[in-house]
Amino acid sequence: MFSEDEKxxxxxxxxxxxxxxxxxxxxxxxxDYKNAVTLKAELKKACLVEKSVLPHDVIRxxxxxxxxxxxxxxxxxxxxxxxxxxxxxxxxxSVMSPIGTALIGYKKGQQVSWQVPSGKKTYTIxxxxxxx
Length: 132
What we know:
Blueprint: E1 9-11, H1 12-22, H2 33-45, E2 47-49, E3 64-69, E4 74-81, E5 92-94, H3 98-103, E6 111-116, E7 119-129
Parallel strand pairs: 1-2, 4-5
Antiparallel strand pairs: 3-4, 3-7, 6-7
């Protein structure tokens, strides 16, 4: 489940890309159906903006992200990428993975709860770095 108090904020380009993956236009992708249904519902309520006005601390595709899992205090750093560029060992996590779909559109300082394969997790976004 997405954070109730804050709306998803996405660039129009990221929205179009996520929608294409969800609709299968980008070929086969590995993500679970329940996650896809939840993401699809949330995308319908997302606030879409031009990339040029998206706040610098909002997670988008190609963001370098640092998050803490509240249940374990584990801190993770990775770059959020499209599925074909994903490489866990290289620190690149797919936007269509459970953690990727949980975090995209949220910003530094927010907490997001999401169902992942190991159960419901709450992530605190510690840092977001965007290249542009």
